[in-house]
Amino acid sequence: MTSIDYDVAILGAGSAGAAAASFLARSGRRVALLDSRPLRFGGARWVDDVPPWMFDRAGLPRPLPPVKRCDHRPLTLAAWRGNLRVSIGPRPIWGIDMPAFTQNLRDESVARGVEPFEEISLHRVLESRGRPVEIHFDGRTPGGDSRAHHLRARLFVDASGMRQALLRRTSRLSPICPALAPSEMCSATQQIREIVDRAGALDFLERHRIGYGHVLSFMGARGGFSSLMVQVEADGERVEILAGATDAGPAGTGPLLLREFLAQQPWIGRFVFGGAARIPIRRPYDRFAAEGIALLGDAACQTFPAHGSGVGSGLVAARMLADAVQPFDDPGCPEAMWTYQAAFQRERGGVHAAYDVLRRASQRLDEPTVAALMEHGLVNANNTWSTLNQQIPALPPEEVARMARGAASLRVRSVPLIASATRMPLIQRLYACYPLTPGARTLHAWARAAAALCGHRPDAQRPEGLPA
Ligand SMILES: Cc1cc2nc3c(=O)[nH]c(=O)nc-3n(C[C@H](O)[C@H](O)[C@H](O)COP(=O)(O)OP(=O)(O)OC[C@H]3O[C@@H](n4cnc5c(N)ncnc54)[C@H](O)[C@@H]3O)c2cc1C
Asked: Which of 333, 353, 430, 431 has the fewest CB atoms within 10 Å around its CB?
């Protein structure tokens, strides 16, 4: 058994955890990075789309090819049935080879002195007056044998994604960060496959009036929060497919959607690369940090709710965490933890919460209503572009007038969606007022106001560890 002391221990060596490890080591902290998988298999195993501005905000260099697989590809939205098409133009996002990107982050963190542990199995989390202080696990350092470790740290970061491996074992955060309901999870699968019949691929492109390298997104196959995206690569050799839908059943709806699509497309062949997982799609927890512990990335529900994109957010949050702890000798002190939490809520929390309201409204729509929204200009190039770029859309008066005309012809079906859209700027403003200093009363008042404005149930608030 070994016993080691660190400034920071990070559970989860996916993109968020690996970025945080690198940033914290750069500022001179002694950091351990742990993953339950072999490190080279940590994090997302597929291609993720990320708006390039998020790399800048995180202070990371924009990825270059081949890690950046594609840039602003043209996008067309399609109704699940029928011929309705809406052309969006170039997407504001880049396709990123996540296994390669995350491995680069891990390599960089190790080069900065981060000490990795892999294939770990977490046994115990010891707390002192509600603060996690030590973990016991079996695991190996790369190249070594598996053995028991006792690891003490002043800050533990849960970046273990949907597992929330540390969160669920801590007494301060677990009761106030509720487990996700099925409607708050998206099951998604992303695959790159060979094209076995080029004529069949060409026929598919012609039928849908798109070209090679063009992204076609079928909307609403399983109601409002579902899509299936197809992109025949420019060389005509491979096709990239992404399917996602609100969670349901043991296998999830996304993989089911993909299977049904593949059964109808004989021109698509062997699986080359990709994976499947669940993604949280609710707003960030009202609190996701407490003395000695911070949640990061998917573990904190920092995923963009409209389409379950968590990579950019996790990187930005990792930067905010490193910046927040920088001035403090104790990286897990209550002030540092609150600074991190407030920074994310004030800058990104409002955008996420606003889209969470839209996500909940869209989940209630059926397939014909989704098609009608496209037909009447309520899903259009401007708001789709902003959604993909993870920003609140600017709505010039002529656009508002056009959408109002579209909404009027749709009548009651689109009312909740329109009501959600009009509240977005207000929600953003309220989150920008997230309390700057720890305090049970101010947090409670803010959470109640946010719940009233967004129409959600506030996360339970407990005063432990907070001044009144
Ligand atoms: C098919 C699909 C497509 C997606 N497309 C996009 C997209 O286009 N754009 C985008 O931004 N996002 C997308 N996402 C979401 C994105 O992949 C996640 O939001 C992102 O990977 C989250 O990063 P993370 O570092 O927080 O967590 P993860 O990537 O989940 O990493 C968590 C790590 O923790 C480790 N771990 C788990 N349990 C433990 C434990 N007990 N102890 C130690 N380690 C543990 C895991 O092994 C893993 O390595 C997609 C997701 C899916 C499934």
From this structure: 333
